[in-house]
Amino acid sequence: MRIVVLAGGIGGARFLRGLKRAAPDADITVIGNTGDDIHLFGLKVCPDLDTVMYTLGGGINEEQGWGRADETFHLKEELAAYGVGPEWFGLGDRDFATHIVRTQMLGAGYPLSAVTEALCDRWKPGVRLIPMSDDRVETHVAVTLPDSGSTPDSGERRAIHFQEYWVRLRASVPAEAIVPVGAEQAKPAPGVLEAIAAADVVLFPPSNPVVSIGTILAVPGIREAIAEAGVPVVGLSPIVGDAPVRGMADKVLAAVGVESSAAAVAEHYGSGLLDGWLVDTVDAGSAERVESAGIRCRAVPLMMTDLDATAQMAREALALAQEVRGA
Ligand code: GDP
Ligand code: CA
């Protein structure tokens, strides 16, 4: 079975671990979000690709969900001693090596997809990990900075890098718009459209619908390829009981005019894209609303508390795919 998964960071990576357990013989291609990518200290950092790679490759900091296990921060401290920031983005010493290798290879002319493959030679994630595009796409968030009067730019409307919004501001001010800068001109990376065309099923893990999966779908050709592939497309809700399980997805959903509920996210993707949608058992009451939008819906436990629970979620997603295929 060939499975294509569109993935962000933590939600995508943890789900993939369960999927590998549930379908050990499947050929899994992961199309990773690169809208979160940022240049820091002259290095190209790809947070979502790395979260998938480290999680599946056994190098992740389990508690945190991102970054390396057994990490130290000497380099960051040394940079801070020189007054070189940003201090709000936590890059550890082990993690830095990944960004150095990536930046070096990009500088030598390799596209990001080839670089990612090379990094995966070390991590052996057990899936094929492809960035959504080799072209630069950077998610920006339009905000009005709080009028504290303390900084010259307070009270001003500005577009800031997604990481600055998410990590520095912790989404503490409303996101007025989300713009995947560069997406319109971006082309899917080599292998992306081919994997979709050859897939038996496409899964949307419980990743952020706006800044993870939404960004991938903003690359021209990807949404169309999925809609036209003629295979079941099944998603799992990242919203449980009207709130994100982790993080601040409600803030970016509000920016695109979508309420923070499992049913609203399904409607946001729409029946033109989604065939099936899993909501958590606490949201069983919303299944009818999803079904009336033309999307087959089941309520099952959706908390990725451990590998067994996550594998069971993956089995449910594959079962729903089978069900819509037979319909
Ligand atoms: P990010 O790039 O690291 O933010 O990760 P993703 O976009 O892949 O996933 C983030 C989403 O995962 C958040 O909106 C969370 O609500 C969701 N999420 C995290 N853990 C769980 C879980 O155990 N169950 C469900 N259903 N969603 C989860
Ligand atoms: Ca992300």
From TrEMBL:
GO terms for molecular function: LPPG:FO 2-phospho-L-lactate transferase activity; magnesium ion binding. It catalyses: enolpyruvoyl-2-diphospho-5'-guanosine + 7,8-didemethyl-8-hydroxy-5-deazariboflavin = dehydro coenzyme F420-0 + GMP + H(+). The keyword Transferase applies. Its cofactor is Mg(2+). It is an enzyme of class 2 (transferase). 7,8-didemethyl-8-hydroxy-5-deazariboflavin binds at D50. One of its GO terms (biological process) is F420-0 metabolic process. InterPro entries: CofD (IPR002882), CofD-like_dom_sf (IPR038136), FbiA/CofD (IPR010115). Its EC number is 2.7.8.28. Pathway: Cofactor biosynthesis; coenzyme F420 biosynthesis. Pfam families: CofD. Belongs to the CofD family. Homodimer. Catalyzes the transfer of the phosphoenolpyruvate moiety from enoylpyruvoyl-2-diphospho-5'-guanosine (EPPG) to 7,8-didemethyl-8-hydroxy-5-deazariboflavin (FO) with the formation of dehydro coenzyme F420-0 and GMP. This is Phosphoenolpyruvate transferase. It comes from Streptomyces phyllanthi. The gene is fbiA.
